[in-house]
Design a protein that fits this description.
The chain is an all-alpha fold. Helices cover about 40% and strands about 0% of the residues. It binds heme C (2 copies).
Amino acid sequence: MAKYLWTRLGVATLVLFAASAMARAESRDALQTRAKQLFGVLPAEAPNPANPVTDAKVELGRLLYFDPRVSKGQEISCNSCHQLDKFGVDNEATSPGHKGQRGARNSPSVYNAAFHVAQFWDGRAADVEEQAKGPVLNPVEMAMPDPDHVLGVLRSIPGYAPLFAKAFPGEKDLINYDNFGRAVGAFERKLTTPSPFDAFLGGKLDALSDAEVAGLAKFIEVGCPTCHAGPTVGGLMFQKLGLVNPYETKDLGRYEVTKKESDKHFFKVPSLRNSAKTGPWFHDGSVRSLDEAIRLMAWHQLGKKLEPADIASIAAFLNSLTGKPDATYIAAPKPLPSGPKTPKPDPT
Ligand code: HEC
Ligand code: HEC
């Protein structure tokens, strides 16, 4: 009798166990379908018909990205603030540029940025090609006085001319400032970071842990994807910071570009790819922890007070968005040797 009972219990436990595993698999399946609609697998490249990515452009763009000689003091390259081995940021609230000066905004990651609707927190550059021409001339960043000085430096380094010729075949006056932007932009178009989340979206249902799956469900349930959607989990629109509950900031954001009253305190919704690694957070780098960023978002953007367990759960999901760039692609190139006419650094 006792034996019979135990067997019955054993079978019941087994059935229950199998049922819960099936329910779990089913809910993973349903969640994956839903997530595919909201997000989508990250493509390997962000194409631009006006600037097709070629190996020659990428090779040139990589050299320029890492070359500090296109800064006034010859100490700062794109990679100083957007370090490719640090998820494309420097983990500072604001970044030191020429003579250690700092701007008012946090350096966003260059990874996956080419997919965004526009560049910068306020969207003032249309694409990465246009964006790349900005920091070189920004007085608190690379501080070159004008494009001609930049081109003078590039022309004085003998190795650049053949690389520009290969990257822009058939063009006259190859070393020009637009081509600088195109080469750097082409390099950035393949700075992508596929992560376990992409494997999950692609059909590998066990690519995420139970905690990450629960976090994804919570992220969707709370309403985060109203703004953070698409393959980059953000980056596709501008939204008001403090949409539901006002947020204190002096930065007028998108208003600086459009001068429209209704754009005050609007910012580009950032991509959450690698966001677990790109702190400090928000446009001014004032938020010190990912948990705090999640808490503030729920309150100011959605009017919701999250329990610590929900915050931890969403953080687990955000961790699954931490991806890996191709190590060969991002390796620092051997710098081209300077020529006899290459200008000396100007520390003033
Ligand atoms: C001194 C630090 C510094 C240097 C050097 C620098 N940047 Fe930036 N970068 C920033 C900051 C700060 C922002 C955000 C500014 C804003 O939104 O107003 C930014 C924004 C960007 C963005 C926009 C990303 C997004 O999501 O909107 C890209 C792309 C970028 N930089 C690429 C580059 C490239 C390419 C170079 C070299 C040509 C470069 N940066 C040099 C600090 C720097
Ligand atoms: C109404 C639109 C909206 C909603 C909803 C929203 N966000 Fe945001 N999110 C933004 C904007 C805009 C920013 C940029 C904030 C800034 O500029 O300081 C941002 C920034 C963030 C950041 C910081 C990223 C960085 O690199 O600094 C994180 C993390 C984040 N959101 C997570 C979430 C989570 C989690 C949720 C759901 C609880 C959520 N967001 C809901 C619009 C939104």
